[in-house]
Amino acid sequence: MSIMRFLPLPAIAAFLMWPTAALASEKAEQTLDLTSHWAGYASLTVFVVAYFFVMVEEFIHLRKSKPVMMAAGIIWGIIAVVYAEHGIHHLAEAAVKHNIEEYAELMLFLLVAMTYINVMQERQVFGALRCWLIKKGFGYRKLFWATGVLAFFISPVADNLTTALLMAAVVMAVGADNTKFVTLSCINIVVAANAGGAFSPFGDITTLMVWQKGLIGFGTFFLLFVPAAVNFIIPAAIMHFAVPKGAPAPIEETVPMKRGALVVIFLFVLTIVTAVSFHQFLWLPPVLGMMTGLGYLKFFGYYLKVTYGKYDDFQNGGKSSHPSPFDIFDKVARAEWDTLFFFYGVILCVGGLGTIGYLELASHTLYVKMGATFANVMVGFLSSIVDNIPVMYAVLTMNPDMTMGHWLLVTLTAGVGGSMLSIGSAAGVALMGATRGKYTFFQHLKWMPVILLGYAASVMVHLWINADQFHLPPHSFH
Q1: 397/375 Cα distance (integer angstroms)
Q2: Residues near 376 by beta carbon (within 8 Å), at least 6 away in sequence
Q3: CB 216 within 8 Å of CB 190
Q4: Whole-angstrom Cα distance, residue 70 to residue 341?
Q5: What is the pTM of this model?
Q6: What are the tens digits of pLDDT across the range 370-391?
């Protein structure tokens, strides 16, 4: 998931010309072309202003969900007024309901995943992994590769933000006094986490949206494993020679996992299997499987709660080492609600701008005149400065006529493109704050050429090893 920062207004305007959502439940000829109407210009202005506030969130401390939620309501209000004037108000209602339905599936899916991650953090799964790495006594270069490889393989099942913060905590714990090591390791972690998320339906919001749309089958995503690995390995191999050769001082620290931690991990895997099975074999939305998996966790949470006093360790004069019994609803409440509401605002805003008529214009300009390969490669560059979620949502809802190979290409580029700049992904933005000035925008920018080399290589590798996919139509389960 990317976080956008510092985007100039011309770039925002260019983004708005990208494919956006159109009406799904009504025929295209029934909609109004408002691209040259006052309603179109007004909606465009509202979105640009809202997006500006999102970009400066770090400076004004206004949560990013607030401006886009306001913008969504205003844009759809404008559309509704114009459609009502033409006596077709029911079309605006049908369009917004379609957008809300798409958001609901995404939100519930992410809510379950976030809850599982929160429970694993509370059960100290990630803390135990961090301590295990620290106690291994790796040198700087081994630690550089260990954190990168783990980020690459953890990101496909956990979000890139959690993965990056976990690996950065290891880097800071063992090498905080070596700024060069911290800087290079954080760049490597960001690239690895974003690359790892690109070849799994669960690795990134964009891959999840593509899977839920039914365009790429679950197993087909793994065709991107080699291109994603190339995207990570090439920059890492070049940066390797700049990493210090020494070793940090050994640290002794122990963080035991809490009772039930391994069961939670098993239930998370079972939940993923359930979601995949519902989608692949029963033709049901994956979100239904995820919500069933949340039921697994709720029942296990009940067991942890009712057996709290019987099995938990008691120390300190008879007081439990755990401050309170396990509460599953506390973990649900700790989901990233600002992010979930931000998705709502983005999907509704982009859907509204698409209803106005920017879809057809952008589709003809990019995917017809310039070609799918060029357009999909450009998605990666756009994702380095703009959130990849609205970009991918725009491409998905426009649904250009592309082969499976091209859908895999845009999935890859949208996922790894955010690595080119530190502001291009949630992982990069989070690490700039977590490392207290040791990893910055300009330090990341210094290594952008080698990251760009990895990006170009991953695209070329995909075009080569998956050439047969460029002759196949996409899957469709809907």
Answers
A1: 15
A2: 406, 409, 410, 413
A3: no
A4: 11
A5: 0.74
A6: 888 999 999 888 888 777 777 7
